[in-house]
Design brief:
Blueprint lengths: L6 H16 L12 E7 L10 E4 L15 E7 L9 H12 L5 H15 L1 H8 L1 H13 L1 H25 L4 H8 L3 H9 L3
Parallel strand pairs: 1-3
Antiparallel strand pairs: 2-3
Length: 194
């Protein structure tokens, strides 16, 4: 909600964390999926007047040459919601700007916001998520301590997965992104939900 003057660097950091979570040791780089880093900003941090800024890697020498690394960083300026052409995106941006619930999509997201505000366990996990990601990345580098801590972290992540499965309408893919647990494991746990 505030231009901290480091959002582009934060986007780079989020990309690296996401890649670190997605690619296990010894994994193939080709197994990396498309990755979108999305920022919802009230202000136009780039100052060029666009409602959305899409970034992807291109060659300086010829902007038609794309790196093709399948990473994208998108900055949505939600106070410019009237300028979005896609009606669903426009509805979401209007919700973020005004908190008006006037569509099926915004009713769903408003319900989720209300739920997360009320659930202190999930709220706490959300508030510490970025720190936990950084911590787990550092633990991976410290091989001697990583094994013992990874078991505890996995247990905590599985508890979070169970809570998300029980109380949200998130897809397995969305839960996987948030928790770092594989979609296969999430599907198994979903099958055992009451």
């Amino acid at each position: 909600m505030v231009d901290t003057k480091e959002l582009p660097q934060r986007a780079r950091y989020y990309q690296s964390v996401g890649d670190g979570v997605a690619l296990s040791k010894g994994g193939y780089y080709t197994s990396l999926k498309e990755q979108y880093i999305i920022f919802l900003c009230p202000m136009d941090i780039f100052g060029r007047g666009f409602p959305i800024y899409h970034f992807e890697n291109r060659a300086r020498e010829d902007s038609n040459i794309m790196l093709g690394d399948r990473t994208f960083k998108n900055f949505y300026i939600f106070k410019k919601y009237e300028e979005f052409t896609n009606p669903v995106v426009k509805a979401y941006m209007k919700y973020f700007a005004t908190r008006d619930v006037d569509s099926r999509e915004t009713e769903t997201i408003n319900d989720q916001v209300s739920y997360y505000k009320a659930d202190t366990l999930i709220r706490n996990k959300y508030m510490t998520y970025e720190f936990d990601l950084h911590e787990s990345k550092e633990e991976g580098r410290a091989e001697g301590r990583a094994e013992g801590r990874a078991e505890g972290k996995t247990e905590g992540k599985l508890e979070m997965v169970d809570a998300l499965l029980a109380k949200t309408k998130l897809t397995d893919e969305e839960i996987s992104v948030v928790s770092g647990i594989s979609q296969d494991e999430i599907a198994k746990r979903r099958a055992h939900q009451p």
